[in-house]
Amino acid sequence: MGYDIERFVGYVNEGLLCSICRDVLEDPLQAPCEHAFCTACIHGWLVHHSNCPEDRQVIDVSLLRPLYRYMKNDLNRLQLHCRNREYGCEMVCSLESIDRHERECEYSQIPCSNAGCTVQIERRNLDGHLAVCEYRSRECPNGCGYTLLSAEDTQHNCVAELRTELELLRSEMICRVEEAKHEMESRLDSQRRHMVQKESILQNEIEELKSQMSRMMSDVRSLMAAERQHRQELEQAELEKREL
Fold it and tell me: What's the pLDDT score for residue 107?
């Protein structure tokens, strides 16, 4: 839907009106036949039709293009009243800047920022409403640190609130201690498994060294026996030589 033509000051060119809603173009698109439409209007039309609502020429969403620049400039220069005119705003500004103004307009109806409050209030009156809103919050005057809603003032008990807070802190501490305990046990188990694995590897290496040493001792004994045999043979040969 476009901008209500009744909001505009002075004459509005026919070419700047949507061919479907007949209001002033909002976020305009143009068909190849040069008829212009609000984006929302033409998209809604093309859901059920495949032609231009003015001259019935066949059109498709892919054929729609932005408005010509000179038409866009003419559109942006149009002067109109703020939509909050009925609440007292007398601002008249260009269509190009109307959205920025209305986002900041002191007469805009905005929701109360307090949780649970459903009141819609003019922006200029918001501070006054917040000061008396039954859903406003404040810190307990007795110093317990609890945030109060006005509706809870008569039911608030500092001792009970502090006791509840203490219980929550105690529960949180217990949870953290348990988590630290489980983490430490997990680390110890991991280190224990690593040590057992390392011990097994060292034990295997020791057994292998013992086996190698045993083989070396056996070789040494064999060499010593061969050496004695060789010495005996030399002595025997020497003896025979003397006899000869």
Answer: 92
Q: Which residues of 184-199 are buried (b: 16+ CB within 10 A; e: fewer)?
A: eeeeeeeeeeeeeeee
Q: Are residues 55 and 28 in the same domain?
A: yes
Q: Which amino acid is at 27?
A: D
**Residue 176 falls within a domain, yes or no?**
no
Positions of the chain with pLDDT under 50: none
CB 18 within 8 A of CB 24: yes
Of the candidates 104, 102, 106, 105, the one whose C-alpha atom is nearest the C-alpha of residue 124 is 106
Distances (CA, A) of 19 to 42, 70, 240: 9, 19, 139
Q: How far apart are CA 20 and CA 34, in angstroms?
A: 14
Query: How many domains does the structure of the chain reveal?
Result: 2
Single-letter residue type at 71:
M
**Looking at this protein, which amino acid is placed at residue 234?**
L
User: Tell me, what amino acid is at 64?
Assistant: L
Query: What is the span of the domain harbouring residue 83?
Result: 5-104
Domain assignment of residue 177, yes or no: no
pLDDT at 57: 92
Same domain, 36 and 16: yes
Phi, psi for 122 (deg, rounded to 5): -65, 140
Contact assessment for residue 36 and residue 71, using Cβ atoms and an 8 Å cutoff: yes
The pLDDT, as a whole number, for residue 136 is: 75
Same domain, 23 and 90: yes
**Residue 81: DSSP 8-state:** E
DSSP E strands in 102-141: the ranges are 109-111, 120-122, 137-139
